[in-house]
């Protein structure tokens, strides 16, 4: 049998898995969803879901992946042969397909700003002018489709080359750079006039605004930012050598992710309030605010370009993981097929994503269930498919894997105590299924 590629170090694995986790979810999506759901209360509910559902599920996917050491579909076939549980892997592939189709639209928006910032088209405007320049640009169908296509091309190139070579290398510089640039951004944002309004918006919870929709979106967001429920983390951990600690990796990924979520919130909301913009502006929020904050820094455009490069990188490392899980299943680990399928699937995703890209131009009046095409794709992935996939993974781990075998796998390379393992198992076996079903039914108005 062909030797599977492995990550050379735990750091390499963590960087790739963290690269998948940290992306548009924390930086773009969190501020806009929190902005639409009242701020502080959303943050608290999101953090609770991250600890009681996201983290345990991340660990569950790691355990499945390293036990089976196969791709998203074959991992389930390996652990539960002759059953239909591998459907979870297929669901993950379908979810990632839809996910990348709209994710690439936002990836394209980053490229738009990068081009504008480099060519000097963004100097000295007011925040309202930045917002209208941006609206104007994405209202051009040719521009939005071209940048979306470029984003997908980058993704295809890297995935066609293979996991280790493609992903491991650059992450070790980009993640620290992202953190440093964010810290600079936060310092500027919280020292703006009127920043206090944004800080209290983010940290003073107003639970009177919480509805069942808020709770579902906070849950969806906790899965989205950690890339759980779609078998991506199963695929990545299948490349991890046996002597590395899974709990440690899971904790560090959750920690980094929360840090970026908080930094993003602290950069965006003070600025939104200071500039008198609306926190509930939706998917465009981040893109309205960013250039104004940077324009108020010395050498602002230089920092803005640097920020956009690492932001683009963060979005790309997430995009790689979405395409990677589909391609690794279809190409069955063969290099020649990998290349071909990376192109075929990548182009198919682009075509499927065209209506999402056009949701801000030609199709801006088209709505289905009261949502634009873009919003519908995002909503379906984040609030239906990911929670459903997570539910199935929790059930799979509790009914199809032996408790003793789970403990064995989690103990490799780590000193996890039985009591801690027990808490994890309890969360996965009882809390996760009950809570996910309850939140989903709640939105349907069952109680
Ligand atoms: N976690 C990624 C982000 O926050 C999105 C993602 C979800 C990536 C699922 C892969 C799989 O941007």
Automatic annotation (TrEMBL):
**Which organism does this record belong to?**
Paracerasibacillus soli
Q: Where are the transmembrane segments?
A: 12-34, 40-64, 85-118, 138-160, 180-203, 223-241, 253-277, 297-320, 341-360, 380-399, 420-441
Per UniProt, the keywords (alphabetical) are: Membrane, Symport, Transmembrane, Transmembrane helix, Transport
CDD domains found in the cross-reference section: SLC6sbd_Tyt1-Like
Q: Which residues form a coiled coil?
A: none
Q: Which NCBIfam families match?
A: Na_transp
- Keyword Ribosomal protein applies: no
Q: Per UniProt, what is the membrane topology?
A: Multi-pass membrane protein
Keyword Plastid carried by entry = no
The cellular location(s) given in this protein's UniProt record come to:
Membrane
> What's this protein's name?
Transporter
Protein family according to the UniProt entry: Belongs to the sodium:neurotransmitter symporter (SNF) (TC 2.A.22) family.
Q: Which domain of life is it from?
A: Bacteria
């Amino acid at each position: 049998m062909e030797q599977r590629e492995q990550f050379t170090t735990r750091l390499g694995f963590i960087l790739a898995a963290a690269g998948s986790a940290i992306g548009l979810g924390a930086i773009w999506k969190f501020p806009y969803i929190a902005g639409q759901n009242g701020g502080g209360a959303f943050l608290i509910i999101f953090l609770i879901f991250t600890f009681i559902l996201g983290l345990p599920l991340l660990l569950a996917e790691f355990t499945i992946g390293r036990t089976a050491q196969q791709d998203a579909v074959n991992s389930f076939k390996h652990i539960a042969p002759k059953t239909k549980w591998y459907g979870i892997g297929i669901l993950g592939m379908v979810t990632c397909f839809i996910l990348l189709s709209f994710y690439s639209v936002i990836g394209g928006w980053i490229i738009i700003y990068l081009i504008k910032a480099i060519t000097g088209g963004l100097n000295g405007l007011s925040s309202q002018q930045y917002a209208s320049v941006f609206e104007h640009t994405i209202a051009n169908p040719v521009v939005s489709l071209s940048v979306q296509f470029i984003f997908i091309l980058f993704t295809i190139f890297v995935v066609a080359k293979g996991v280790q070579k493609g992903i491991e290398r650059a992450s070790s510089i980009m993640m620290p750079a992202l953190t440093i640039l964010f810290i600079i951004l936060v310092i500027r944002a919280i020292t703006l006039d009127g920043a206090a309004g944004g800080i209290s918006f983010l940290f003073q919870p107003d639970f009177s605004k919480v509805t069942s929709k808020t709770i579902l979106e906070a849950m969806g967001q906790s899965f989205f930012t950690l890339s759980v429920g779609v078998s991506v983390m199963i695929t990545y951990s299948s490349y991890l050598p046996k002597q590395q600690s899974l709990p440690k990796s899971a904790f560090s990924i959750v920690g980094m992710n929360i840090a970026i979520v908080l930094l993003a919130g602290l950069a965006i909301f003070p600025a939104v309030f200071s500039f008198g913009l609306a926190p509930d502006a939706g998917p465009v929020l981040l893109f309205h605010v960013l250039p104004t904050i940077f324009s108020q820094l010395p050498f602002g455009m230089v920092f803005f370009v640097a920020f956009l490069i690492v932001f683009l990188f963060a979005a790309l490392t997430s995009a790689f993981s979405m395409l990677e899980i589909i391609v690794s299943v279809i190409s069955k680990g063969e290099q020649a097929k990998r290349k071909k399928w990376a192109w075929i699937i990548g182009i198919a995703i682009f075509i499927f994503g065209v209506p999402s890209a056009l949701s801000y131009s030609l199709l801006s009046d088209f709505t289905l269930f009261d949502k634009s095409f873009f919003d519908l794709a995002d909503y379906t992935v984040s609030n239906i498919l990911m929670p459903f996939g997570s539910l199935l993974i929790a059930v799979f781990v509790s009914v199809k894997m032996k408790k003793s075998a789970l403990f064995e796998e989690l103990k490799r390379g780590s000193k996890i105590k039985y009591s801690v393992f027990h808490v994890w198992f309890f969360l996965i076996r009882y809390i996760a299924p009950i809570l996910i079903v309850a939140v989903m039914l709640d939105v349907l108005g069952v109680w």
